[in-house]
Amino acid sequence: MKMLATETIDPARLNRRRFFFFSSIFVLTCLATWFAADLYWRDADGLTGLEIVLLLLFVPLFAHIAVGFCTALAGFYVINRGGDGSRISRAAPPGEPYRLASTAVVMPVYNEDVSRVFEGLRVVFSSIQERAGAENFDFFILSDSNQPNQWIREEVAWVELCKQVGGFGKIFYRKRRQAINKKAGNVADFLRRWGKNYRYMVVLDADSVMTGDTLARLVTMMEANPSAGIIQTAPRVVRGETLYARLQSFANRLYSPLYLAGLNYWQQHEANYWGHNAIIRVQPFMDHCSLPDLPGNEPFGGRILSHDFVEAALMRKAGWAVWLAFDVDGSYEEGPPTIIESAKRDRRWCQGNLQHTWLLTTRGFRPANRFHLLMGVMAYVSSPLWLLFLMLSTIEMINVTAFAKPDPAYALADTTSLFGYTVAVPESLTLFSLTMLLLFVPKVVSVVVMLGRTEEVAGFGGRGRLVVSAVLETLGSMLLAPVNMIFNTKFVIFTVLGQGVGWVTQKRHADEDGTDWREAIITHGMSTVFGLVWGISSLILIPVFFAWLSPVLAGLVFSIPVSIFLSKASFGRRARELGIFLTPEETQPPAELVQLERNLEECYRHLPPFEPLRADYGLMQAVLDPYINATHVALLRQRRPSAGAREWFATLQARLLREGPGRFTTKEKMALLMDPQSMIRLHRELWSLPSESLAEWWRLAMRQYNVLAAVPSTALYR
After folding, report:
1. pTM summary value
2. What are the domain boundaries of the chain?
3. 124: nearest Cα among 231, 193, 218, 192
4. Is residue 3 pLDDT above 70, yes or no?
5. More exposed terminus of the chain, fewer Cβ within 10 Å: N or C?
C-alpha cells in the first residue's frame, strides 16, 4: 500500500506564510493605532495622561481582534484556492486502506453522567469493531469520581457494557485511589502503568464521540508521519438541546472551517493541542511532556491546570511535530447547555491559562508555541482590558464634554464620538468601519462560502434558513459578549487575588426548565446593576456617547432574561422545528450519533431507583448484590492495613449495618468501598445476620432488591 506522507513544509515557504500573516496583523494594528492617536490628539498640547493610557490599551486590544481577522483571511485564501496542499490529512485519504498499530483510547471521567459516558463509549467501540484491524484498539475508562454512588454505577455500567458487546479484555475500567493533578495526573498515571503497551493514545472527553473511520485515519496519519507527536482533530459541537447550546453549535459549524484552515496555513507542524479528541505518540509524550510544578502556590503557581497547551509546547521543544487535522470529519463533542455552565468552565480555564504567563519565556519553546500561550492568556485578559478601556473612555468623554473649548472645531455638536474621543465624523467613521470590518467580515465570508456549497448548505436547512440563523447568531453573540466580558473580568480578578478554583463536575445537559430566576439573579444581578448605573449616567451626562455604548449596555442590562431565555430546552426544540440553528450533523447525522441518541433514549426511559434508597443506591448494590460485590472487590487493589486501621474499619462496618448509611460521611463511605476486606465482610454479614440486628434501611433495601434487579443496571443512571 502506497502511503502519502506529510512531512514538514519547506521552511522558506512556511516563513513566507508567517511573514504574510503576522505582517498583516502588524499593518492593521499600526493603521488603527495611527487613526486612534490622531483622534485623541485634539490640540497643540498633545495627549493627556488619560489619553495615553487609552492609546496603550487600544493597541493590544485591536491587535487581538486583528489576529482573528487575519486567521480568517488566510483561511479564505486557502479555501478559495481549493485547499491547502500541506495538511496532515493527505496521509490518509478517505476510503483508502489504513495502516493500524496498537492504540489505547482513553476517556478520563469525573462524576459524569454514567449513561452518557458508557453509551458514548459503546458507540465508539462498535464503530471501530466494524472495521478490519479492530484488534489494535483497547479502550480505557479512567475514573477519578469521588462519590460512592458514582463509583459503583461506573463499575456496573462497565460490566454490563462488556457483557453486551464482548468487551472483556478490550474495554478496561480503572478507578484511582487518589485524584492527584486532576485530568493530567489521571492520564499520566495510566501511561506509567500501561503506556509501554501502546504506540499511540487517543484522548477523549466524557462527552466525546469519534467514528471508527476517524480513529483509523488518525492512526494511519501517525504511521505515515514518523515525526508527528500529536495530531489534534477539530471536534464539531453536537447534541445541543437548549437555545444557547444550539446557537454555539451553529456558530462552531458555520464559522470554524474558515478559522481552522487559516490556523493550519500558518501553524503547519507547530499546531496546538486542546486536551481531547486527539491522537498522541505515547513514547515521546512520556519522555518529554511531564508537567513541571510552577513556582509559588495556586492559583498562579503549583500544578498546571491547563495542561494541553504546555504539552504541545513540550512536544515541539523535543522536536516532534504537532498537527491540526482541521478537515477530518467524524470527531464530535458537546458544549455547555447554558451561559452559567459555560462560565463555570471558563473559570477553570481562566486560571489555567493565566498560569501560562510563567511559561512565555521558557527556554527552548518555539515562537509559535509562545504565541499560542500568549493568545490563551489574552483570551481572558482582554476582557478586563476592554472593560477598563470603556470605563476610561467614559471618563474621557465626560472631561471633553465638561471642558470643551469654545472653538467650533471642538464643539460637541459638530463632532461625534468613538470609544470615548470627540472627533470629526469622517475620521471616527473610518476607525469604526475598520473595527466592524475585522469583527464581522469573517462571519459574512463564512456565510457566502457556505452558500456556494449546494450539498452542504442543505444541512443548514437551506440558504434562507442559513442566512436567518446567521443573523440571529450575530445578534445573540452581541448580547453575550458584554456578559462574557464581565464574567472573565471577575475570573481574572479572582485569580490575581489568589482565589483558586476547585475541581467541579461539569454539567453537560440542562434541566428541562433551564436556569431558574434565583440562579440567574445571583449570577447576573451585579452585571445588571452595573449596566443600569453606567447607562443612566452616560445618558444624563453624555447622550451622544450613550448611543455608542448601547450595545454593551444592552447585554449587561438584559443579561438575566437573556440567560434564562437561552437556557430553555423547549425554546431550543422550537428553534429546531422552525429550522433555526440547524447543522449538518443534526439534519444529516452520522450513524454513530443516531445510535447514541437511540441508546440514551432507551436508558433514560426507565424509572429511577426506589426513592428512600436513592441517595446510597450504589453503596447498597456493592454490599447487597453478590455479583456487584464480587466485581467491585475484584477491581480493588489488595492492601494490608495496620492493626489500628483494621480496628477502625471494623467499627465502620458495625455502624453501617446497625445504623445504615444516613449518618456516614462521603469520606467514610469511600474508605469502606476502597477496602476489599470490609466489602467482603459487609456482604457476608448482611446476608447472615438476623433482620432485627440490621438497620431499617437495610431491611427495606433487601425487600426492594428483587424489584430493582429486574431493571437493567445501566438504565438506572441518568
Report:
1. 0.90
2. 613-716
3. 218
4. no
5. N
